[in-house]
């Protein structure tokens, strides 16, 4: 082998390594599996990149939107499958005052901050601290140390997320974050784009959704909460009874993109149920968070995804459980501030079943 060829091979290996690592930490894809139920996760942004399970005919399908290659997630602007933090959703004016100090964040949606800023927790490489691929308790735990001042937020935060498969067809997601040395807002969630008919099965307008919430938090023209809490009764936002996603979507500009305040005071609250008649799949969501943000992929336009399938608006839906959005700027909303030494916890349970 000539020295020239050797140099070329070495260059190719280094290029490949650079493409699959950030600052020396390797980016990988990790599968957790229980029979014919499997979930793939990447530690780049702690993202769910596939959820495979059978339909009523026994055919296995992938029920989340996404890409074929990790490199595409690095260039993603829609947060496909991503963990969202340090603070999910929007912070008005990209600033807040805490204990007398004004903190200016990095705006990444006009003058506002969304999902923690331009990097947030979605575009960093998480450490794999535990990984059990299969067996009775398949799971993976990812951790990330967010430094004081990162994206403008105060204090060091040690965050973790554990994805685990339970019987039968249950996906548990547990977010934790400890404020190490300063009070700071923490409000974690994640952003799977669900189409339980199959990621490439078309739009979700015929799927039936029930959301266990009698109120929403209205927003201004920049989608920043006004501080009000308003009833959904007699509005297109009312999903207290099961309704097709598309039944009244034409009455809303582009589609659904709103935070709902859950009715239950239970620790593990009923959040939503989604049903797809064609596949027979049902997804039931419960969580410890007080709110859920319902989004119908309104800004997913001509996005080339898995297998070359092109995603369009309403090709999927998201149900992001969370604390109250922009709570740092609305004293009437329950606080999302975590004090030094205290740990934030947020659990979500997805239960999948078949309705024939």
From TrEMBL:
Molecular function terms from GO: aldose 1-epimerase activity; carbohydrate binding
Residues that coordinate or bind beta-D-galactose: 89-90, 191-193, 257
Pfam family, one: Aldose_epim
Organism the protein comes from: Nicotiana tabacum (Common tobacco)
Active site residues of this protein: 191 (proton donor), 320 (proton acceptor)
Catalysed reactions, as listed in the record: alpha-D-glucose = beta-D-glucose
Transmembrane regions: none
Keyword Nucleus among UniProt keywords: no
Pathway named in the protein's UniProt entry: Carbohydrate metabolism; hexose metabolism
Alphabetized Gene3D superfamilies for the sequence: 2.70.98.10
Family classification: Belongs to the aldose epimerase family.
Assigned keywords, A-Z: Carbohydrate metabolism, Isomerase, Signal
EC number: 5.1.3.3
UniProt signal peptide: 1-24
Gene: LOC107787173
Keyword Isomerase attributed: yes
GO terms for biological process, alphabetical: galactose catabolic process via UDP-galactose, Leloir pathway; glucose metabolic process
UniProt protein name: Aldose 1-epimerase
InterPro entries: Aldose_1-epimerase (IPR015443), Aldose_1/G6P_1-epimerase (IPR008183), Gal_mutarotase_sf_dom (IPR011013), Galactose_mutarotase-like (IPR047215), GH-type_carb-bd (IPR014718)
